[in-house]
Amino acid sequence: MNPLTRATATTGAAALVAVTGYLGTRYLAIGILMLIALAALGWPRLLRVYRRRVSTVIIGVSGVLSVLAIGLGRDEPYLRYGVAAAGAAVLLALAAEVFFPSPPGRAVTSVTGMMAGSLVAVSAGAWVAAMRTPGASDLVVAGACALAVTGIASVLTANPGINAAIALTLGAATGAGMGLLLDSIGWPGGGLVGFASAASVLIVTELTHREPAPRRYMASLASGITPVLAAGVLVYLGGRLLVG
Q: What's this model's pTM, rounded to 2 decimal places?
């Protein structure tokens, strides 16, 4: 896996979230759906799922259900509507293995891979939930900007330890800087969200280093998009804790 490809995917996906989040909830939802669609094409290869087309459909449908449920929910907390989508994702993954069985010895890997990809897609709906939380919409922009900076910083040098230190520092600094510009969150809250967002990128990056490098471009792209989608939960929790 080319680290530059993954970092570029992370930065590009985060920039898309930041821009669409600035434009409004509807645009953010569209941006998240676009990222889910791209990631769903690469996750089956990244997770070594046998039935790749079936897995792509299940992951994509799970993400769409989550975004729609959270986006159309009427009462707070909006993230609770994503629980139904998570349950549907698990049932779809199990049903797929029944109707489209994997070869002997591959069933557990395929089911867990589909579940993992589906739950990451479902968690992406948390970006929309954060955007709909009164006073927390600025956190979406701050967190996304921190993710974009972290994506670049994660490949600045050939030393992973140095990259991690730089990425965490710049991620927290970016979040704090956005907090100074956006009065609704302040620099401490922005720094906290920035640090958490940077940590999500570094954790996924470390995990990918321990796996065989995928040969397909879409798998590398999915690997880069994954921390951006998953970080939506961290931003949402930050909004609940800092804003209420």
A: 0.87
